[in-house]
Amino acid sequence: MNRSQLTSSAPTRFWGWLTILLTCIPLLLMSVAALFLWEGAQKWFLVNQLLERGDVAIGRVIETAYRSERSSMGVYNQRLICLVEYRTAEGKLVRQWELDGVNCQATYQLRPPQGDTPGALVPNYGQSVVHYLPEAPTQASADLELTRDRAKLDFGFGIAGILGSLLIGYFCLTLLRIRWAESRYVPIIRRLGQQQDYTGIIRLLETYRQHPAANILVWEAAEYIGHCPELYPRLVDLFEQMQTSTSKKKLESVDESIVMISFYRLSSLGFHDLGLAMLARNKQTLSAKTLVSFVLMTRTKQLPFALELTAEKLAALKALCEAKVLTFGLADEKQCQVDFAVHLDYLLYLVTLVLDNTALNRQLVQAIGPVQRLILSALTQAKAFDTLSQDSAQALDKQIQVLLTRIDSRQGFGYELKPLLESISGKLAQPIQQAAFSVTKISATKVSANTGK
Predict the structure, then answer these.
(1) DSSP calls for 164-181
(2) Which residues cross the membrane (predicted)?
(3) Which residues of the chain carry a pLDDT beneath 70?
(4) What integer pLDDT is reported at residue 113 of this predicted model?
(5) What is the pLDDT of residues 80-102, one digit of tens each?
(6) Long-range CB contacts (< 8 A, 24+ apart) of 320-328?
């Protein structure tokens, strides 16, 4: 399945909760940031008011307590807080917890004995100057600079929160736009496809080619435009524009396995020419092996492959087996080189197809047709084993071992194929052994260097 179908077939309830989540996250962050800004503004204005018309009183600590707080590491700490008492000019007694700038740590002094009362160490809390507003004595501070610094800190957290929520909100908005476009335009494309209004689908894509969900829409449309070869050039041009558009944001990393899902899906529906044309305009980086393998397999499906082929299709298959360079696209606009590893992998793929067709047609087990002869001849001519890397040799040898378990070597195609594959397997073992010998030789050299021998 391509990415459009993977997302559009998800449960509606899941997408509903996801929409709510994507909406609530930036709103929650914005609310927290607004709270910090509000607290900072309150403290800033309080300091300004205290400096302009605040009154002054002498306060004292009358009670202390420990407050349990949980740190960011999940550890609970005890923080000392104190209750400050001060009297306003009007004689009103005010008590307030956690006033800025008050030192809650007590100093102890020796109290002399009085009569029968023995002397003892008693706590002595330092007095603090308290700035308060006459009309609101509970709005007070013992350290104006500390209060202003805390206001600046709140402003900093608030501004950082606003910027972070805008960034996350932009990302969530893009996801919501994609989801909204899927829920709105994908059904329209499907309805137009069912009505065979392919021109209408192209017009819809041209309208939304700058949309973040354009890549999803074009793959959904390709499954319907595949029935109308006359519109291939317009669809392929739109596909290229959607990839190169600067306004389109890519929300996923470039992974060739993800990219190739849609191409294989299109090929499996029988739209081979369209799949190759879009592959030629694809801008994402694909490995040479993936590119060539897909072209070879798609060309093989175009025949279509069978144990009995016409002379024209047999010649096309022979050309694929002997190809050094492959061209593909609307007018063969792109080329790719076929190296020996991909060539041998393709021949083993053809062997698999033959074995699958033979299993379905038991009467053809004894016969060796032109297709089988062509594959045997191509395998016999395979010689560039020294160009294979260790990983490629191991992967190919593993495929051969699987095929050997399926071959009936008593007669027909399997009788000639089995010794040929065993010979190739033996040749593939040489690059593996050479690589292992090189590793062993390097290790021995390092050991000799370390021991001085």
Answers:
(1) HHHHHHHHHHHHHHHHHH
(2) 14-38, 155-176
(3) 1-19, 72, 106-111, 119-126, 244-255, 359-366, 431-453
(4) 73
(5) 888 888 888 888 899 988 888 88
(6) 320/296, 320/346, 321/346, 321/347, 321/350, 321/374, 321/375, 321/378, 322/378, 323/296, 326/292, 326/295, 326/296, 326/299, 328/276, 328/277, 328/279, 328/280, 328/295
What's the CA gap between 211 and 196, in Å, rounded?
Answer: 24
pLDDT for position 178: 76
Evaluate the omega torsion of the peptide bond into residue 304 and state whether it is cis, within 30 degrees of 0.
Answer: yes
pLDDT of amino acid 221: 92
- The encoded tokens of residue 394 equal 């191991």
Note the pLDDT of residue 252. 44
pLDDT reported for residue 4: 41
> Residue 401: what pLDDT?
92
List, as own/partner pairs, every contact residues 232-237 make where C-beta atoms lie below 8 angstroms and the sequence separation is at least 24, other chains included: 232/273, 232/274, 232/277, 232/330, 233/330, 234/202, 235/202, 235/205, 235/274, 235/278, 236/274, 236/277, 236/278, 236/280, 236/281, 236/330, 237/281
Residue 155 CA to residue 37 CA, distance in Å, equals: 5
Cα distances (angstroms) measured from residue 304 to each of 257, 309, 379, 420 = 25, 9, 21, 26
Neighbours of 286 (CB within 10 A): 17
The count of other CB atoms within 10 Å of the CB of residue 235 is 24
Residue 200 vs residues 184, 225, 230, 234, 242: alpha-carbon distances, Å: 15, 11, 14, 12, 18
> d(Cα 139, Cα 96) in Å, to the nearest integer?
9
Amino acid identity, position 38: W
Domain ranges within the chain, ordered by starting residue:
28-109+120-164, 339-453
Query: How many C-beta atoms lie closer than 10 Å to residue 442's C-beta?
Result: 10
Predicted local confidence at residue 410, as pLDDT: 76
Longest dimension (CA), the chain: 128
- Encoded tokens for 212: 């973040």
C-alpha 386: how far from chain center = 38
CA-to-CA distance for 205 and 239, rounded, in angstroms?
Answer: 9
